[in-house]
Amino acid sequence: MESKRQVCLRVWGFQWFMESTQSMATTMSTKQQYSHTMLGLELPGKQDPELVKRIGAATALEVRATGIQYAFAPCIAVCRDPRWGRCYESYSEEPKIVQEMTELIPGLQGDIPPNVSKGVPYVAGKDKVIACAKHFVGDGGTQKGINENNTIVDWKSLLSLHMPAYYNSIIKGVSTVMVSYSSWNGVKMHANRNLITGLLKNKLRFRGFVISDWQGIDRITSPPGANYSYSVQAGVNAGIDMIMVPYNYTEFIGDLTNLVEKNIVPMSRIDDAVRRILRVKFVMGLFEDPMADLSFADQLGKKEHRELAREAVRKSLVLLKNGKSSNEPLLPLPKKAPKILVAGSHADNLGFQCGGWTIEWNGDSGDITAGTTILDAIKSTVDPRNQSGLL
């Protein structure tokens, strides 16, 4: 039998993490019927923060239904170059629009009460999850749009273009911030103490915890992992509180222990990291009730959530041009059109239409969830007698 004191002092871990940049997008089963909304770039079509907040609330319920308590969202990158392959995760190239879209945070975590100090993490209850503002900072401004590259801007531009959404996120009680793989003016963000500790933690008084990206500290050196002990030292001393170490965790523990024993990583830095992580765990109620709640199981793929996803799709559509002129519109398509060209294999592939961060980072092919392909939708719309004209 465990003593009462042992139970009280047990420190519970998070029940894994979930990438939720695309609503409840990454699931453990390829056939799980989850609800699926668009990625960041598609949502601001209507610039509707209230809609984004409702999507966050539905996402929180579906994430909780899997037993997971931590969502890696929102992505508040400001995409300044459309060549960047992860632009689809960003809400906009305009900082103001990205700021508005941080309403996803109170959707995921709940509305922060007026008496809670700014910068303190907040999670409203068991139907909410921890949110994560990412990727700190400037990941959308890299040279030539190259992923994980160098963002070359002056201090004023960094603050005016890439930081505003972080101000909003902190005010709304975001619990965690994830660091970017990219660099700012040649300094790797995972090793940038001036920005992580100096700006985020000290000046902006962020009281949640800072988490690395997947194997983020490995990329501090070139090639990645070339001097792992240095990477551990640089990342932890920069102010990262939780490190994602998917593989070489034994080496990480050994290196960090050695660095602390030699006072290269001061114990005060460890204390700060522990304090921040425990603060978030207390806020979300992990110590009172750490187990998954089976009562949320019926929230996964709920009809109301699917209707919400459809509403988001309808409101996100932006028609740039409709035919040659107003007198010769292309849309709506005539039901009796003799021929309709549907080009590309993706038009009849549900998985590819869902895009990245569906099931996994790059998405997947085939019938990964319930839905209708573009080709099937057109077939159901046009006159059946003319379907032989589909090319």
The major pleated sheet works out as: 3 strands, parallel
Order of helices and strands: HHHHEEHHEEEHEHHHHHH
Structural class: mainly alpha
Portion in beta strands: under 5%
What would the average pLDDT be, to the nearest integer?
A: 88
Principal-axis shape equals globular
Low-confidence stretches: 1-9, 22-32
Percent helix among the residues? 25-40%
CATH architecture of the largest domain: Alpha-Beta Barrel
Strand order of the largest sheet: 1-3-6
Query: Remind me, CATH topology of the largest domain?
Result: TIM Barrel
Ends apart, CA distance between termini: 70 Å
Query: How many domains make up the 3D coordinates?
Result: 2
Task: Say how many strands there are.
Answer: 6
* CATH homology superfamily of the largest domain: Glycoside hydrolase, family 3, N-terminal domain
- The tally of helices reads 13
In a few lines, what is going on in this structure?
This protein is mostly helical. Helix content is 33%, strand content 5%.
What does this structure look like?
One of its GO terms (molecular function) is beta-glucosidase activity. It is an enzyme of class 3 (hydrolase). Belongs to the glycosyl hydrolase 3 family. 33% of the residues lie in helices and 5% in strands. With 391 residues, it is mainly alpha-helical. It has two domains: 4-297, Glycoside hydrolase, family 3, N-terminal domain (TIM Barrel), CATH 3.20.20.300; 321-389, no CATH class. A hairpin with a 2-residue loop joins strand 4 and strand 5. The longest helix is centred in the N-terminal third of the chain and has 17 residues, at 49-65. It is globular, with a radius of gyration of 23 Å. The termini are far apart.
